[in-house]
């Protein structure tokens, strides 16, 4: 006699699959997706990049000049841009602006 806890769960699962057979292709697609994701994550975690070893303190993006691996490595420009412009404002508008936005 099988254990009591296993039989009802197995029967209900078989009953569900016999009532809803279009779930088999979905299960196949999901199995393929999760297998691919697991493979890629495992492969990426064990991949070693020999370039720039020991320089983990700065995580700046670097690239090779002209995408040639034999060329020199260049630092990417900063993504933060700051612009200063001069604008003549009426006095009442200037008083309502935050102090950090205005330079006297």
UniProtKB/TrEMBL annotation:
The chain crosses the membrane at residues 23-41. It comes from the Eukaryota. Keywords: Membrane, Transmembrane, Transmembrane helix. InterPro entries: C3H7.08c (IPR039965). This is 8877_t:CDS:1.
